[in-house]
Amino acid sequence: MIDLINISKSYTAKGVKKRVIDRLSFSFPRDKNVAILGPNGAGKSTLMRLIAGTELPDEGRIVRHGRVSWPLGFAGGFNGSMTGIENIRFVARIYGQKTNAVIDYVHDFAELGKSLSLPVRTYSNGMKARLAFGLSMAIDFDCYLIDEITAVGDENFRRKSRKVFTEKLPHARIFMISHAMNQILEYCQCGLLISPEGVWYFDDVRDLIRAYETSNKARLAAQPAPLSS
Predict the structure, then answer these.
(1) Which of 55, 180, 222, 223 has its CA 20 to 30 A from that of 82?
(2) Which residues does the UniProt record annotate as the domain ABC transporter (predicted)?
């Protein structure tokens, strides 16, 4: 469904250039849901944004076979000066959807009420995430990208989100980043382990989780002892 062809990505902070992804080539299986695990700062979310197209690689190409969502909950693409409804209408037109139907769906799902008529710049981060998630669910994608989105909202909203998301699964694939291993086991069959040392693919998600937990223990063991306890 998605092919990574020799992609690299770097960022510069305080004059220091850090290469997060280095000449990575990989073709994801088309019949499995994929987990992406690794320590904080290893490049998981960067890879997700590259797959979505919200960021471009410095080098290489990404080939997408089918319609790929933006990372669920990612609100960076909203125009802050436009209202929630105007943003919904704009995205619906891009994807060739019936605008009124999408607006109605997001209105019911995101539970933002009259705030949909306000500029998005007035929204809290949680409100933006609910808008982005509702808009993602209003459009049928071939592949959904999930980056810890199940934590958005109160318990009722999370329960509703899981329900509608599960309804999408028979007709779509997912890429998931999560620190909740029970969610990884529930939704994914295979995955990538990303670390500063490199990237590894595991065809069985249970092997992936074991490797991830082992690498975490080794990383903790390599840290110096605390100054006090």
Answers:
(1) 55
(2) 2-221
Where are the extended beta strands (E) located within 80-158?
143-147
The CATH number of the structural domain formed by 1-67+142-162+169-222 is 3.40.50.300
- What the block records as the tokens of 73 is 């909950």
Residue ranges covered by each domain of the chain: 1-67+142-162+169-222, 75-139
The Cα 84–Cα 103 span in angstroms is: 9
Contact 52, 69 (CB under 8 A): yes
Query: Which residue in this structure is represented by tokens 């590259």?
Result: 50
DSSP for 161-196?
A: HHHHHHHHGGG-EEEEE-S-HHHHHHH-SEEEEEET
pTM of this structure: 0.83
At residue 123, what are phi and psi to the nearest 5 degrees? Answer: -80, 150
Calculated CA dihedral for residues 175, 123, 94, 188, nearest 10 degrees: 10
Task: Tell whether the model's pLDDT for residue 150 goes beyond 60.
Answer: no
**Cβ proximity of 34 and 191 under 8 Å:** yes
Share of the chain above pLDDT 90, in %: 57
Q: Which helix (H) or strand (E) holds 159?
A: helix 155-168
DSSP state, residue 77: T
